[in-house]
Every structure is written in structure tokens, then in C-alpha cells.
Amino acid sequence: MTPTTTRPAWRRAVVTGGAGFLGSHLCERLLDGGTDVDCVDNLVSGATANVAQLAGRPGFRFLEYDICAPGCVDSLPGPYDLVLHFACPASPADYLRLPLQTLDVGSLGTRNALAVARRDGARLLLASTSEVYGDPLVHPQPEDYWGNVNPVGPRSVYDESKRFSEALVTAHATHNGTDAGIVRIFNTYGPRMRAHDGRAVPTFVCQALAGEPLTVAGDGTQTRSLCYVDDTVDGVLLVAAGRSVRPVNIGGTDEVSVLQIARRVLELTGSRSPIHFVERPVDDPGRRRPDTTLARELLGWEPRVPWEEGLKRTIAHFAHRSSPGRRAPAPQPSGVAHPVALSEEPAPQTCPEV
């Protein structure tokens, strides 16, 4: 689906968290559409390997900056037509080891991203998450549901960071007239995810390919609604191209249990790995499915890739990545104060939790 809007074409965009899972796909799609892209990442939870294929392409720059740092606004020259604020440690493995950084990027990082957008008169889109709904008492979750969130639980650094950033973006749009929107992204999966980062799909796929037991939390009856990354990118860019300030859910509508996902991965990989049930994390949501009525009616968006087809593509990616002798070039950072150690294997990456 190609975004349609009365807005003129974007000339230059900045993507914070652009070396993460979802951010890297957005950088690539924008470049393919003729938009110059500054990919900004401090590599705390992103990896240059995710944007290696973009190195050398006209209009692409990789900038190793921390969006939370003082002076970051002045370091991003612009001018930009679009600011996509996607920086955040979003996998459980990342935000549990980086709690303060996670809170900072939702507060200080969002303030700086808003300052860049206001300076250039750009459209800002905040990447929020289904985690703002917590362990929901309403199902499926519409945008006007306020959520059921534990503000002091182990997941609170991520949940409350996103809830605060939504409030901050809304206040700037209301009181300063900033052209800003919010997209609440549900369980997205696909190539460039990091193995064993606490999210179901990459963990199960890598365990199955390695012949290891698949570790299912609890009894596996908790549900997720999977959305393949290409569909999520379509939805994100449609929200970006719109003019709405109110949050918009983007996510899959096929609700499946975690145990179903594990069993289907075993079938698709042909693995004989057993399933092992492990302790369920604190505040792990029991059900998760977006109400995407607004996205469908406002933007004409609906996911097109069935979750099982997406699993096949994801499995193929991980199987290829683990093949011997494979190496990929990495982009050289621009405007970096210190050299970066470039790694072939992706580090922890940003993306909505699955």
C-alpha cells in the first residue's frame, strides 16, 4: 500500500533509532520512495549491520548521535520535512538492562525530536506502543482505551516512557501548534530482529533452527496479534502522511496464542525441538489485539501478509543469516566524535515487543 496524501513529497527525513529493527526498514522504504534520510542512532540497542545495505546510497547518512544528549538538536542540520522518532530500547532484554536510558529517550529524546520538528516546520511522528494499554481489561484495544498499567513494575520503564512521550507530543501539538502524530505499534516481526531478545518470534525461530528447546512462558495461552514488518511500515508512513494528532493503532488482527506460534515455527522449520514451559514474566499481558477501525477508516490501511506467511519469510531470513561464510558491509558513520566498532552480527535492536 502506498501512502496517499495531499502533502508534498518529503525531501529529507530524520529517523531516530534508525539502525534498529523497525527504524532500518523505515529508512530503506523512505529512500526507495525518493526521500533523503538521516539515520540517527547511538547504537545502544541498534546495529550498523541493519543499515549496511544502505551504505553508499545517494541521500543516506548514518549519524551516531544520542537523541537525548544536550546539543543534539544543533547536530542534526536538516532541514527536515519529516521526523520519525523511533529511538527506544523496546525489547524486554533491552529495556530491563537499560531502564534509565529507556526513560530518558521517552522524555529528553522526545523533547529534542520535537525541537527539531518545530525548528524546521516538519511533521513529527512518535512511535508509541501497544504497551501503553498494559494488561488490558478491554479487548480488542481501541485508541480511546486508557489502559491498565503497573507504574512501578519491571516493565514500567518502557510502558510509562511511552505514555509520557505521548502526553508530551500531545501538549506540543495542542499548545505550540507542532505538526505531530502518534502511532501505537503492536506486535511487529520480520527480518533484522535480534535472536533471543525476549520476543517470541525470533526466539522461537532461532531455537528451532538450532535444535534447542522452545521456551514458552507460562502455559502459552496468552495471545499476541502479529503484524509483518512490511505491513507495519505501510501503516506508519500512512499515519506520518496524515494530519491527525490522535493516536492510531497499527497491528495485526489475527490473534494467536504464544503456544500456537511456537508449534507453527516447529512445523515450518521441520525442527524436532521440544517445547519447554518456563516462568511467565511479571505483568506479561494476557491478551493483545488492536482495534484497527480508525486506521482502516481514516487511512485505508489493513495488514496484507498473513502471520504464517510472515513466519516463513522470517525463518528464511534467520536461516540465511546463520549460513557460514556470510559477511555484510557496514556503513561508516558521519559526524561521529569517536570511531565505532562495526559488527557483522546485529546487536539488540529497537522494535515493538512481541
Count of alpha and pi helical runs:
10
Q: Taking strands numbered 1, 2, ... along the chain, how are they ordered across the largest sheet?
A: 3-2-1-4-5-6-11
Biggest sheet overview: 7 strands, parallel
Number of strands: 13
Helix content: 25-40%
CA-atom Rg in angstroms = 19 Å
Précis, in short:
The chain is of the alpha/beta class.
Summary tags:
13 strands; alpha/beta; 15% strand; 7-stranded parallel β-sheet; two-stranded parallel ribbon; disordered N terminus; 354 residues; disordered C terminus
Structure, explained:
By secondary structure, this protein is an alpha/beta fold. The chain is 35% helix and 15% strand. The strands form four sheets. The chain has a seven-stranded parallel beta sheet with strand order 3-2-1-4-5-6-11, sandwiched between helices. Helix 4 packs parallel to helix 5, helix 6 packs parallel to helix 8 and helix 8 crosses helix 10. The protein starts with 11 loop residues before the first strand and ends in a 33-residue tail after the last helix. The N terminus and C terminus are likely disordered.
